[in-house]
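Curious: why this fold?
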Amino acid sequence: MSPRSRQTFFSRLHHSVLLSDAYVGVPGGIGTVIEASLVWQLLQVRLLHETPLILVGAMWSELVDWARRNVQRPGFELVNPEDKAIPRCVKTADEAIAILKEQHARRQGLVDRPRDEATGKDQT
């Protein structure tokens, strides 16, 4: 990718997202919410795989709870139920670090991946 193609905010964000092994969001402003939403969407449509989206702090749990309530209303289902489980909301940085260590161990083959009992496929 040439430097010229990364001149816009979106192209720089998109490029960095594709290169990342994990995403950890901390409380921030509208830009931070946009970035977290972009990552959630890319995970939802399976353009990213086995990449944790960890959101630290009360701000995120309230936002994610709102999204979960409003994207799966009866007769107005905008996502699959499993898509609502993509972001992992935690209260502290220590909890986020524990998830990152677990994910790293899985990638290194040190820990078995959890399996979906219905499909037999690995879960992330």
User: Anything to note?
Assistant: The helical segments are 9-19, 30-44, 58-70, 93-107. The chain has a mean pLDDT of 84. The chain is about 45% helix and 10% strand.
